[in-house]
Amino acid sequence: MGKFILKRLLQMIPVAMLVAFFSFAIIEIAPGDVLMHYIRPNMTNEEIEELREELGLNDGIVEKFVGWGKNVLQGNLGYSLINHRSVAAQIQERIPATVGLMGASLVLSIVVSIPLGLLSGVYKNRWVDQLISAISYVGISVPSFWLGIVLIIVFSLKLGLLPSMGMRTVGVDSAWDVIVHGILPAIVLSAGNTAVFTRYIRASTISELEEEYVDTAKSKGASSRRILCGHVIKNCLLPIITLVGMNLSHLVVGSFIVESVFSWPGMGTLGMSAINARDYPVIMGFTMMSCIILMLGNFIADILYGFCDPRIQQGGDRQ
Amino acid sequence: MTEKQELTQQDFLPVNQAEIAQEETYQRGAFENLKQSFRSNMMAKVALGVLILLVLSAILAPLSPYDPDAIDAKNKLALPSAQHLFGTDEMGRDYFTRALYGGQISLLVGLTSMCISTTIGVLYGTISGYVGGKVDTCLMRLVDILMSIPSFLLIVIINTFFTPSVTTLILVIGMFTWQGVARITRAQTLSLKKRDFILAARALGVNHRTIILRHIVPNLVNQVMVAASVTIANAIMLESSLSFLGYGVSVPTASWGSMLQSAQKYVLDRPMLAVFPGVFILLTILSLNILSDVLREALNPKLNK
Predict the structure, then answer these.
(1) CB contact under 8 A, B290 and A153
(2) Residue A23 lies in a domain
(3) Does the pTM exceed 0.95?
């Protein structure tokens, strides 16, 4: 297991390098002189030159990259060009909202898709299956921002049941309030993944039901319920871990879109407003953070899968 | 091959008839299969019909009596009527006409960026698979790495460095969505290059470029078609998400995504304005997804038990 984890960690290095280069490039290519944000009107030319030297603006590209890398590793992502606050602090503030939303929607997808997928697979080609398949087709194809708007129209404007934006009611500070605000965003964010998971679980249920161990269990007189819940389900659940890993990027990207529809105060809204304002240090921090979330998520999914199915590890070691 | 082969019906036919029979079964591989699945699949027929209708309506958009960008201050936010089928938007522009022209943009972006990404993907994949060895490992590692960064994020950020226009949108989407196609074609090339006809071509001294373009690429058509249909759907989704967030097509050009963006502000008074463009996007992507599944089943019967 240790070897497997180490190997997986080593694999992450090139990805991390590419992300670092890309993020650095955002800052480097960004138009405009960074110095402009530090100059005060009463500075002399000498002082400006000193400042330029101090900020490392006269260094070569390699030196700049190394200096930037050192800062990033120490957790210093620079300062926003707009409000001059530390990028790292701003991201830190926003992360719980985004990760919470992503987690809630992931749990929702898994909880909804398992029974739907099993049902669909067991009653293959019957009306239940056709209904579920049709719904999952729509779930895959619906643009999340539009689904968000439609749900806001129905549940917030027409029925008045749920809040349409933000994470908290002003002046109210309770977990329940956050949950109520999060229902619609979580549903919208989970729609695509739920549909994808349902289709996979359906397919794996169908192929598992054709396996010989099902016949054995049947011949021993096990009830079909027991076969399904005791045997088939275990084998169907395993691919979900890989699926979650594979669909994490949908979750990350989806959360940006959903956040901007519902004005959810997470990383997505921070990043989107930074992009609108061309606030390059924040864009850089936001890109790096999203990629890190994605990389960590994939890493955890792989390790979990290795725990659940030792064949993967062995296969990985042998290569 | 030393085992006794089972006799089939073909072995009892005269030689040339057996050949004909074989040819027929071979031909059934592609188009007959496709026709068959269309005949039996109601959903596929509906999806194809809807898609044709959407494409036709986008092409025939200029037949509409209204100019999509003509502002009519007296007729702001009009309700749907016989004159304005979908009503008018916040500037009095006919919403139905705008939806049709929006379809032009969305479908155009989808199709052209698919062409770009498929071309890049096919060339990358075949070269990687054909050359093999260290080059292949390096090229594929690069694809893995690129795939671990969400292309949406890349596109949004790269777009900030350009002035947004339909052309840059097409180029950027095309250039960052080819990884899936590259993987598929590379896997296929690996198995193709060991086949006898490629060996024969090499023995005859055909150069590598001709082998790739003449012998390998034509054999990838089935897989590439399936991948391409998915790519169009993804590209349209990307375009509308980008335009919705304001990083895509800029005003006053209509695209389904940008129409939704402006409709969002009037959701209280005219919720229907937000419903129409979304329905168009949903229908397009839904029918493309259904058709790509039909294609997949018909062209790669082995994949589906």
Answers:
(1) no
(2) no
(3) no
Tell me, yes or no, whether A144 lies in a domain: yes
pLDDT digits (tens, 9 = 90+) for B249-293: 776 778 888 888 888 877 777 778 888 888 999 999 999 998 888
Q: Does residue B23 sit within a domain?
A: no
Residues of chain B with C-beta less than 8 angstroms from the C-beta of A302 = none
CATH classification of the domain holding A159: 1.10.3720.10
B18: pLDDT confidence band, cut at 50, 70 and 90? low
C-alpha angle A196/B125/B212, rounded to 5°? 140
For residue B151, give the nearest of B172, B132, B170 by alpha carbon: B172
Q: Residue B196 is part of which domain span?
A: 29-59+95-304
Q: Are B190 and B127 in contact (CB under 8 A)?
A: no
- In this structure, what DSSP letter does residue B46 have? H
pLDDT tens per residue across span B145-161 = 787 777 888 888 887 77
pLDDT of B275 reads 86
Enclosing domain of residue A177: 93-264
The distance of A130 to chain B (nearest Cα, Å) reads 11
Spatial separation of the C-alpha atoms in residues A135 and A159, rounded to whole Å: 23
Nearest to B95 by CA among B132, B114, B115, B67: B67
Task: Tell me the residue type at A48.
Answer: I
Given a contact cutoff of 8 angstroms between Cβ atoms, the answer to whether A133 and A120 are in contact is: yes
Nearest-by-Cβ selection for B271 from A146, A153, A257: A153
CATH code for the domain of B42: 1.10.3720.10
Q: Does A142 sit within 8 Å of B282, measured CB to CB?
A: yes
Q: Which residues of B touch A (CB under 8 A)?
A: 141, 145, 148-150, 152-154, 156-157, 160-161, 233, 237, 240-241, 244-247, 260, 263-264, 267-268, 271, 274-275, 277-278, 281-282, 285-286, 289-290, 305
Q: Which residue has the tokens 């209204």?
A: B66
